[in-house]
Amino acid sequence: MLDLQTLSFSSVLAALISAAFFIFAWFINKKSPGINLWLAAMLMQPLGWLLLSLRSHISVHLSIFVANVLLILSMLLFLLGGELF
Question: What pTM was computed for the model?
Fold first, then answer.
């Protein structure tokens, strides 16, 4: 059985790997509309997951409020990027 810290770490790691591959895709397709919004969203997600996973080590305001704002904003950027694409 995995504990919450392991699951949080694996979420952050998966989001970082996805962002790294998407940076490569962005270099290839810079002129495609909306791809820059997807890249911004892909870079916001690991930061949001990291802040959520550090909940017991940093302030509650930073770990809950800022992390949720980053994650919600990344979903909005995915939506807007999809509309532009």
Answer: 0.82
35 neighbors 80 (Cβ within 8 angstroms)? no
The answer for residues whose C-beta is within 8 angstroms of residue 83's C-beta and 6 or more apart is 34
Give, as one character, the DSSP assignment of residue 33.
Answer: T
Residues in contact with 58: Cβ distance below 8 Å, sequence separation at least 6, in sequence order:
51
User: What tens digit of pLDDT does each residue of 66-81 get?
Assistant: 999 999 999 999 999 9
Q: Is 80 exposed, middle or buried (0-12, 13-18, 19+ CB in 10 A)?
A: middle
The answer to whether residues 43 and 5 touch, using CB atoms and an 8 Å cutoff, is no
How many residues in the chain? 85
